[in-house]
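User: Teach me something about this protein's shape.
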Amino acid sequence: MNTSRRESSVASSTTLRAASVTQSGVSSRAATIAFEDVDMMDIDPPSPDTLLPSNKKFYIAVDYGTTYSAVSFVSLEPGEDPEKVKPDRIKNITNYPKDPRVYGHIAREVPTELCYLNPSEQHNGPNENRGWPQSWGNGAEQHGDSGDGEDSDDAPPYEDNEFEDTAPSDDLCWGYMVQDTLGRPNRTSLAELKRGCLRRTKLLLDDSEHTKTVRKDLLIAIQHVKGMKRIKNNEDVIRDFLTKLFRHVKHELETNHGYTDQCAVEFILCVPPIWSSKASRTMHNAMATALRKSGFMRRSSTSIPNLFIVSEPEAAATFILTTSPSNHRIRVRNQPTTCHHY
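Assistant: First, the predicted structure itself:
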């Protein structure tokens, strides 16, 4: 399967998995991670003002991929039973900035890429917010340098004390904007632009031996970005990408799908089964900060209310068992095999 299509499929299946279990007595699964070595601590009881019965409820699933990321969602009318949601109700977030629309196809996923530009370049690069609400913010986020290398296992969870509502500034390109920017370097040389470009940032959370070489190269680029005073911690690059992503998601839902701040939302995060508890916590913290900065969460929130975490193989298996024409052949004690493409 094409990698980008795989990401949107996993995001869709994650949406289906969460929506189908929320009211079936399995919602307590949100208190325990989908794999053994991770303790789940991310679920908080929703505040009363987020569960108004007169508004829609949205299930928003995120697949933060190594090369591509995707977001799928489904909206339920007040009083609608999540167990009766059909797969064809699930929709993908689209209309990503600078989507090349190859052969006329609208992308259902976006490259997991970032490019930090020097401030002098921001007026020459693409502006993703052109024509969008000014309240999305153009203020630059400046951070100090916190040292070299990867964060240690003893490091405290990431804490963001800057509860400002601005997103990463216009001198940060993301997704399809990165290749567009590299195609016209303007006053900055192409080699200099590439030094601020980051790809495969998801591998920062994978400490396995077979990703060591990739992580080493990635850390070199991150050190360059730290020298630009744009980030403080290595994982800030994940936060910055997710902030851009969620701002786009919120805009799309508000513009095309009837989302308002009064709608209840349940977030679903799809994670690899090999991730450690530290990796899952780091991802949760980055996602929580991004949701605050994008306006999905209140500024005072430190964890994500109504978060459902599911492993990627389980999400894919759920989708296949739900949508496959041959699923009636599955019997008790059958042992299906799921291949995980990382």
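Now, about its shape. The chain has a mean pLDDT of 74. The chain has two domains: 3-107+258-329, 110-240. If you'd like, I can walk through any region in more detail.
User: That's plenty for now, thanks!
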